[in-house]
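User: Assemble these into one structure.

Assistant: Restating your components, then the assembled model:
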Amino acid sequence: MARIDKEEEQAVLKVLRSGELCRYGPEESTVAAFEKGIAEKFGVKHALATNGGTASLIVALYAAGVGLGDEVIISGYTWIATPSAVVIANAVPIIAEIDESLSIDPDDIEAKITPRTKAIIPVHMLGMPSDMPRIKALAEKHNLVVIEDCAQAMGASVNGKRVGTYGDIGCFSLQQSKILITGEGGVVITDDDDLYDRARMAHDAGNLWGISKQSQAAFPGMNFRMDEIRGAVASVQLTRLDDYLQNTKIRNAKLRHAIADVDGIEMRKCHDEDGDCNLSVAFFLPTPDLAVKFGEAMGKHGVGGGPMYTHGNGDRHVYPNWHYILEKRTYHPNGLPYSHPAYEGKIHYSDRMCPRTLDYLSRAVCIGIQPDMTDEAIDKTANAIRLAARDIL
Ligand SMILES: Cc1ncc(COP(=O)(O)O)c(C=O)c1O
């Protein structure tokens, strides 16, 4: 089935014909309906639609009161939007190692906590859940806020509990490459009434819709509102979530089964196989050099592949390529947040500061799984992996 189908078309047409494109126009807003649907699906009190995953992260950081003087621990493997959002909130990103699950290593989180640490942002990359029970326990022990970056992982879970509901706030993206899509779009979820009020203020230029003037939540915000057209698409997309995940699950299992007896490759660890969105099959080669050769050999057998990180490959999912973060650049020459006296730390970034992250990613080969991947495509991929292993290992 196409990712965008007749139902989305009809829902969008309905909005266009109504002439009410902003959520505050119609009596029955599509954005409000989407938020209601998300809150029900995730079993949370509040969902707030935004216009992107980056916007969601910024809203969450503002809602949590993260700002000047604060440090936020994030994963060394994430899209550049995660550290960028932290800097935009005037806090300092502290980059932590990942482990064999390709998500943030809780031991390294703990090693990097300082008196300035305010929040942790675990990122559920490629739809794979981070070790949320441990991260949550760490946060409770050190009194830290947890903001989950679930941009790539709508529907993932750990021990039956969905990611996005472990942290104080969960942030999702609906951008074109994600599980549910509106082109651009996002949503934040929380059970906390105050965080929700603050998130609403942050995402809506400090508008006081339904928030009393006396409320502590009142402060100037941005405009990260979702519009009715996207609300309409998002509401339909949400009805497709379970099917999407079922389809990736079947295909992922088929591919993994087909390569289960290949010697010399080691599957990446997952904190909960049942809670994986199954968007990829990733495995490690013994060395980075072998991973490069393995990718080349797969290419010869008709399927593109290769390590997730090679030095200088420019992929902004991997921290050495976040040059404007590592060089502490910001939009203004005053150098905030790094230079402000409220920040008492002395952060020094280097492209080699998380060697284990680089080791894992430079040895990892990752195959993307699509919900409509055909049996032929799965067989062809499995075959290329088997032949590459025969040629190289
Ligand atoms: C892990 C992660 N965080 C945040 C984002 C930002 O989402 P958006 O592009 O919707 O702003 C993305 C998008 O690619 C992402 O992959």
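The chain has two domains: 6-240, 242-314+355-392.
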